[in-house]
C-alpha cells in the first residue's frame, strides 16, 4: 500500500488551507485548540500527541504507519520546511511532495519560450474591457501571473499603470528582457503589497486548487477593492501536456460554485461574461469587494 502523506500546517491554520481529503488531524499540546477547530470543520477525529515536538521523527513514523494510503494533518511541527508542506517518508527521511501547482510552475520554468510561441498573440481584450468600464486610466494595477506580458502591454496602452508579476522566474526574465520591470511573486505564498486600484489575473486562477484559490481571493481582498480575472468553465480537474509537452494542472469551475466561493471570500460579481477558445469556455469576471 502507498505510504501515508502528512500535511504539515502551522499552529494558527485556518480551515480554508486544507484542500485534500483528510483522514485525521494530529496536533501537539499547544496546537490542541486549533486542531480541534480544524478537525471539527473537516468532520474527522483529532488526536493530541504530547511528545510530537520532542520526538518528531518517531511520532510521525507512528502516525504514517497508521494511515498508509491516506493523508493526515499534523499541526505544530515544521521539519524546517516552509509551511504548508506535504511530506512522505522515503526510507531515508521525510521528503517534501511537490504540489500540483508547483509541478505546473516547474513546467512553465522549463518551457516559457515554447509557451509564448503556442498562445494567441492577442491580449484578453474582453477582460480588459470589463476592467476599463470600472476604473479610470491612470489607475495602478497588480497583475498576477503576467506570463509573457501580452495583457500588461495592452493595459498600459489604455493608460493603466501595471505592476507585472509571475511565480515563474522564466517569465519574469522574459518580460525584463523585453524591457519591462517585473517581479517574481507567488500569489499563494507571497505578500502582494499595495493597495492597488485593481488586481488583474487572466488564466492564472485555473492553476489553483479550491483551497488555494480561497486563500488567494482573501489575499486579493486585502490588496484592492476591484478584481478582474479569467478562468475556465468545466467540471473537476485535469492534467494536460498540450502545447508544452510537460504536465500542467487545471481546475475547472461551474458558475454557481464559483460565485459562492467569491461571496465567501468577500467579493460581489459585477459582470460575468463567457468566451470560447480552442480549449473550451472561459469565465471573464469583474468583481468588487463586498
Q: End-to-end span in angstroms?
A: 47 Å
Give me the number of helical elements: 9
Task: Label the overall shape.
Answer: globular
SSE pattern:
EEHEHEEEHHHEHEHEEHEEEHEE
Q: Runs with pLDDT <50, length 5+?
A: none
Mean pLDDT: 93
Content of β-strand: 25-35%
Total number of strands: 15
Level-2 CATH architecture of the largest domain: 3-Layer(aba) Sandwich
CATH class of the largest domain: Alpha Beta
What is the H level of CATH, i.e. the homologous superfamily of the largest domain? Vaccinia Virus protein VP39
Oligomerization? single chain
Proportion of helical residues: 25-40%
Which key phrases capture this entry?
290 residues, alpha/beta, Rossmann fold, 2 domains
Can you walk through the features of this model?
With 290 residues, this protein is of the alpha/beta class. It contains nine helices and 15 strands. The strands form three sheets. It has a seven-stranded mixed β-sheet with strand order 9-8-7-10-11-15-14, with helices on both faces. The protein has a six-stranded mixed β-sheet with strand order 3-2-4-1-5-6. The longest helix is centred in the C-terminal third of the chain and has 14 residues. The termini are far apart.
